Structure formats: structure tokens, C-alpha cells
């Protein structure tokens, strides 16, 4: 079993008397078809580094799988826990990523910028020849998978960011990010009662809005899965195992919100979503790493997660997951 870092080796996530503010100073270099930032689309050149614990990283895992980019972009997986220095490749033999040959993701950041002082975050895309991080700009990363890597999509890959729906997808994503994806963190890492109360109210107001929106349509935008569904799903998947208790998002569980619960199960049972979700890694990460809000590091045994495979009934709303495309091959 991987040894968990002691409490004094962990980073701090809560700042007293202040609301939580996410550091969004990402490396914004892009990998594009024309290579305008110096990194052209090239199969086999880049390695996506992720953790199944992280919702932002899980987005990239899902999109990579849905589009069939596995042969073009390899993937390295960090373990679910980390210390304040870096994510580590503790799941691999010898604790080294088998392609990059490094024990810590930090090493790839330092190869790009010696002494890199911002967050060592996943997901990150590493240029294998140089061993340096190209980007950790997760909102742009999946969009580029969808638009810049089309020459390497599998036959039957879905249109996750179709041109005619982009404005609607972007509008929904903006609200979901602010109030839900980041909103749960603003609850969990709030440094005052006032900041927590405001984040809590904003989160559940948006979840109510999403419930109303999804009560009459199967997916967030259009009749098929899009980038918007991927972004919401990774937060919903963590809601009952982590956010409800650990982050005090406890007005009700996801499983007590009928529309969102059915919607989440519909996605979970769709190839690419449930098979990219690792509840064990999710629970171990949040409860063992965030020692300033869970000092003991004890991971709760519950909840029972077998209910994710129960019938959801969302087919009656019409639409189809992949439109004119096809599902990715079973794993």
C-alpha cells in the first residue's frame, strides 16, 4: 500500500477569514495543427499526465477516450495522494513514469521553467523528447483535443464541441464552472462562515437551475453529449463520495436530487464516463490530502456506490449519446 504523506507534509488549502480563490495562472501554451506556439500536433510526441482523483484531469481522460486519441497521446497516471511538492508516479514500478522516467510531475515543470513556483497541477501535457510540460491549461486542453487533433480521432468519434452549439456550450460552461465545478471548492476551502454560506447558496441555486434545465432534455446542450456534459459530470461523480460531507455541500446528496441523479447515472453508464471514474482514488485523494479540513486522514467507507448502475430512464427524453457517431470500444 502506498504510504500517505504526513499532515505536516501537506499543503494548506484554507486561508482563515478569506474566501477560496483558485490559482488560475496556467501555462497557456497550446498544441495546435499549425504549431504556432512551437508545439505542432504530432502523434506519439506528447504524454498526458493525469490522476483519476482530480476532476479536471478526469475530463481529459474522458475526452481522450471518447475521441479515440489513445494511440496518438499516451497517458501517465499519478497516484491519488500527493504532498505539498508534487503529484508522484507511485503507481508505476520503481515509482518512475515508464515513458518520462521521472518520479514527480514537478520534474517536468522544472524542465520547462527551472524553479517553477506556481501550482504543480494535473492534467498536464508533457513534450516527451524534451521532458518539459507544454501546458496545464485544462479548460483549453479538451477543446484542443476536439478541434486540433481531428486527424487522429477514431472513426465514429462524437462531435463534443460542434460549431453551431459552441456559444451555448460556452455559456453553460461558464456558469457551471463558477458555481458548481469551482463552487464545491469554494464551500470546502472557505475560510469564514460568511464565505462558506455564500458559496453554498450559489452552488445549490445553480444545481436547482441545472435540474430544471435537464428535466425536459437529456443533455445540457443539444441532443447529444458535448463538452458541457463532460465538465458537469466529473463534479457530480464526486458529490456524494466527497463534496457532500468533506466539503460540507450537504443540503442534500446527489442521490436525493432526482433529475441530476438520473442524468449523472445516464452518463456514468455511457462508455467513456464510468470506465474513466475511480471512486477509490477520488476518496483517498480528498480525505487524505486535505489535512487542514480532515486532520486524521481517515477515509470513510461509505457511501454505497453500487447504485450508479441502476436504471435511469433518461432515454425517454430522446437524443442519443453519440448522435451519428458510435461508442468507443469496450475496455
Please write out the topology:
Layout: E1 46-50, H1 55-67, E2 74-77, H2 105-112, E3 124-127, E4 132-135, H3 138-147, H4 166-181, H5 183-188, H6 193-214, H7 227-237, H8 239-243, H9 258-268, H10 279-289
Parallel strand pairs: 1-2
Antiparallel strand pairs: 1-3, 3-4
Helix pairs in contact: 1-3, 1-7, 4-6, 4-7, 6-9, 7-9
Comma- or semicolon-separated keywords:
331 residues, mainly alpha, Glutaredoxin, Glutathione S-transferase Yfyf (Class Pi), Chain A, domain 2, 2 domains, four-stranded mixed beta sheet, 10 helices, 4 strands, 34% helix, disordered N terminus
Q: What do you see in this structure?
A:
This protein has 2 domains: 146 residues, Glutaredoxin; 154 residues, Glutathione S-transferase Yfyf (Class Pi), Chain A, domain 2 (Up-down Bundle). The protein contains 10 helices and 4 strands, in the order βαβαββαααααααα. A 4-stranded mixed β-sheet has the order 2-1-3-4, sandwiched between helices. InterPro entries: Glutathione-S-Trfase_C-like, Glutathione-S-Trfase_C_sf, Glutathione_S-Trfase, GST_Omega-like_C, GST_Omega/GSH, Thioredoxin-like_sf.
